[in-house]
Amino acid sequence: MLLDERFETHLVDFGLSKLLRPYDTHVTTDLVGTLGYIPPEYSQTLTATFRGDVYSFDVVLLELLTGKRPVEVCRGKSCRDLVSWIFQLKSENRMEEIFDTSIWDTSYEKQLLEVLSIACRCIMQDPQQRSLIDQVVSWLEAIGTGKDR
């Protein structure tokens, strides 16, 4: 959750990127960050990047769309992380099931699907396939205006 019932923020541990070259920083063998928000490549490279931050930002965006945490605590084989679950439902053309029922409204279906599409461009496994944050912001600002992405 990003805001509690008193509208106090609870978004922390976000933005591992630094304006330093990766090899100029101290590197530990510990994985730093919150599970579910850490981009897949970080566990292998231990290098924080701007594209990794885009991944983390879009996991937050997916939380807002779905009402689900990035890593659900559950049992059984049906448990998945949020990103995998999103890609599975998209591949099965079951996009309506992705959205939290409290925000799903057919009169805003196009805009909600646009936000989902933007988020999915930024959670790709390959960081080079992810959009940069300035492009993401531009796309989000254009939703509902009729401008092309």
UniProtKB/TrEMBL annotation:
Annotated TM spans: none
Pfam families membership: Pkinase (PF00069)
GO molecular function term, any single one: ATP binding
Ranges of residues in domain Protein kinase: 1-143
Top-level taxonomic group: Eukaryota
Name the record gives this protein: Protein kinase domain-containing protein
